[in-house]
Amino acid sequence: MAIPLIGGAISAVGTVMQGQAARKAGMYNAAVSKANARASRYEGQIEIEDRQREMRQQLGSIRAAYGSSGVQFAGSGMDLLRDTASEYAWDLRKIGYKSEVRAVGLENQADIEEAEAKNAMPAAMIGAATSLLKGAGTAYGMQSGYGYTYGTELGG
Predict the structure, then answer these.
(1) Which of 39, 43, 53, 128 could serve as 12's disulfide partner, Cβ 3.0–4.6 Å?
(2) Within 13 Å of residue 88, how many CA atoms lie on the same side as its CB?
(3) CA 13 to CA 33: how far, in whole Å?
(4) DSSP 8-state symbol, 145
(5) Can you tell me the distance from the alpha carbon of 62 to that of 94, in angstroms, rounded to the nearest whole number?
(6) Rounded to the nearest 5°, which phi and psi values hold at 153?
(7) With contact defined as beta carbons under 8 Å apart, do 149 and 141 qualify?
(8) 111 forms bridges with which residues in the sheet?
(9) d(CA 52, CA 55)
(10) 3-9 own/partner pairs: CB under 8 Å, 24+ apart
(11) Rounded CA gap, 6 and 139, in Å?
C-alpha cells in the first residue's frame, strides 16, 4: 500500500523540481534575449555612425575633386552630390530599421520566454498534484480490494 504513495510523492517532487528548472531557464533565456535586443540597437547605432563618417569623407572628396577640377556646384555636379547624399541617407534609414526590427523580434522572444517561465511552476504544481492523486488512488484501490491500477486489473 505504501509503495504507490511513495511513488506518487517522488513523482510529485520530481515534477516540481522540473518546473523550477524550467522557470529558471526561461527567465535566463528572456534576460539573454533582452540583452541581445539592446546589443542590436547599439550595433545599429554604431553602424549608422560609421556610415555617416564614411559619407562625410566621400562627400568631402567629391567636393575637393570638383574644386580642383573647376567644376561648379551647379547643374550635373550638384545633382551628383545631392544623389550621393540621398543614397547615404537612405542607407542610414535602412540600417536603423533593420537593427530595430531585430531588436523588437528579440524583445518579443523575451516576452514569450518570460510567459513560459511564469507558467512553468503552475503547470508543475498541477502535475505534482496529479501524481499524488494517482498514487493515493492506486493505494486506495489496492487496500479496498478493487484490484485496479490506472485502469488495468491486478493479478491477472
Answers:
(1) 128
(2) 19
(3) 30
(4) T
(5) 24
(6) -75, 135
(7) yes
(8) none
(9) 5
(10) 4/134, 4/135, 4/136, 4/138, 4/139, 4/142, 4/149, 5/135, 5/136, 5/139, 6/135, 7/135, 8/131, 8/132, 8/133, 8/134, 8/135, 8/136, 8/138, 9/131, 9/132, 9/135
(11) 10
HEC-encoded secondary structure of 6-57: HHHHHHHHHHHHHHHHHHHHHHHHHHHHHHHHHHHHHHHHHHHHHHHHHHHH
pLDDT digit string (tens) for 104-143? 999 999 999 999 888 888 888 888 888 878 877 777 777 7
Grid cell listed for 48:
549608422
Torsion 38-44-50-52 (CA) sign: negative
